[in-house]
Specification:
The protein is α/β, with parallel strands linked by helices and 199 residues long. The protein has 2 domains: 2-65 and 185-192, no CATH class; 66-182, no CATH class. It has 5 helices and 7 strands; from the N terminus they run αβααβββαββαβ. The chain has helices at residues 2-9, 22-25, 40-54, 117-127, 166-174; strands spanning 16-17, 58-73, 84-86, 105-114, 131-133, 140-148, 176-192. The longest helix has 15 residues, at 40-54. The mean pLDDT is 86.
């Protein structure tokens, strides 16, 4: 249920307030289809309507002063880590061979793209917090990062505990760190929600 709310309203789990425990633990199969192809924003409004109809979901938007993370350079000299590459520099251009990560962990990579938007999403997901860019880095960047996983992505293989945590990998491999602070952020407050009843 919480994943459906995140999809429908464009928020992260930590931005959903006041919901009962079951919205994050119980699982539901939802089958829905539009009669014609519709734009994404319209499809999301349709998901909101479905949640209101089947789950009696009532929500309101607010701003709350909550903890957020600022993504900053880890080094005082402004240098980045070995796995973060400035696409405007010839020596940091496309890699000559594919990146190979150690087994038993998690890996994330992104090709040259505007700013650090993909990386901000990754940090937000892994640390479950809203993240704002305070690195001062501009232009296009690509990166590779590998870190330990609580559950190995390889079936029946134990996690590789020799790999760094995500926070340590962020520092060692990308030359970045996070710093906690507080700021007003948008949240979605659940006023009411009910388990659906069979038709």
């Amino acid at each position: 249920m919480s994943q459906l709310i995140q999809l429908a309203y464009g928020v992260r789990d930590h931005q959903i307030l006041n919901g009962p425990e079951w919205i994050r633990s119980e699982r539901f199969n939802v089958a829905a289809k539009a009669s014609t192809e519709v734009p994404r924003d319209q499809a999301l409004r349709m998901v909101q309507a479905l949640l209101a109809d089947r789950f009696k979901l009532r929500v309101r938007n607010e701003s709350r002063d909550l903890t957020i993370l600022e993504l900053r350079l880890a080094r005082d000299d402004g240098r980045v880590g070995p796995n973060l590459h400035d696409c405007s520099k010839p020596q940091d251009g496309p890699p000559e061979k594919p990146f190979v990560a150690p087994t038993g962990g998690s890996v994330a990579s992104a090709d040259c793209g505007p700013g650090l938007s993909y990386l901000l999403n990754l940090v937000s997901r892994e640390l479950d917090a809203m993240v704002v860019d305070k690195t001062g880095l501009t232009g296009q960047w690509r990166y590779n990062i590998f870190f330990t996983a609580a559950i190995s992505p390889v079936l029946d293989a134990p996690p590789n505990l020799s790999l760094p945590t995500f926070a340590a990998a962020l520092n060692e491999q990308l030359g970045l760190r996070t710093e906690r602070t507080r700021a007003p952020i948008p949240v979605l407050v659940i006023d009411s929600v009910e388990r659906p009843t069979p038709d």
